[in-house]
Amino acid sequence: EIGMGLTGFGVFFLFFGMILFFDKALLAIGNVLFVAGLSFVIGLERTFRFFFQKHKMKATGFFLGGVLIVLIGWPLVGMILEIYGFFLLFRGFFPVVVGFIRRVPVLGYLLNLPGISSLVDKVGESNNMV
Q1: CA distance 100 to 106
Q2: In this structure, are residues 87 and 78 in contact, taking their beta carbons and an 8 Å threshold?
Q3: pTM (predicted TM-score)
Q4: Is 48 helix (H, G, I), strand (E, B) or coil?
Q5: Cα-only R_g, the chain
Q6: Residue 16: which of 86, 130, 51, 24 has the closest Cα?
Q7: What's CA 88's distance to the chain center, in Å?
Q8: What is the dihedral sign for C-alpha 45, 56, 111, 122?
Q9: Are residues 37 and 59 both part of a single domain?
Q10: Residue-range definition of the domain harbouring residue 119
Q11: 70 — phi, psi (to 5°)?
């Protein structure tokens, strides 16, 4: 429960920091809370193993490098690197997320709209396993 709370607050601070024109302090707090929350949810050892798998080193480098750049004080560049690393790290989860969201009543309807459906199908057909 603590881990989910930390992760939720981390996502909130990251989102709020981006809305407020990439505020350095909010983005730094959001990054620290997100990584700490992830560690609480799945454990320190599993978090370390997830980030430092051989085939995920490039993604981890972008993600953690982006966090470091945000902490140094270049929030826009850091967030771009973080977002790229995040998508590389978690691309194996996207088909599961798309399948879940398609079962939610209102969101499922939105994902089945003509323009959005083809884009979501491309994201959802990823065969990369985590």
Answers
A1: 12
A2: no
A3: 0.77
A4: helix
A5: 16
A6: 24
A7: 9
A8: negative
A9: yes
A10: 91-129
A11: -65, -45
CB 31 within 8 A of CB 14: yes
Place of tokens 């429960």: 1
Structural domains of the chain, count: 2
Contact partners, residue 21, CB within 8 Å, separation at least 6: none
The 10s digit of each residue's pLDDT in 54-108 is 999 999 999 999 999 998 989 999 999 999 999 999 888 888 888 888 888 888 8
DSSP 3-state of 39: helix
Task: Give the pair of three-digit tokens for residue 53.
Answer: 């798998």
Amino acid at site 31: N
pLDDT reported for residue 126? 58
Residue with tokens 């990251």: 14
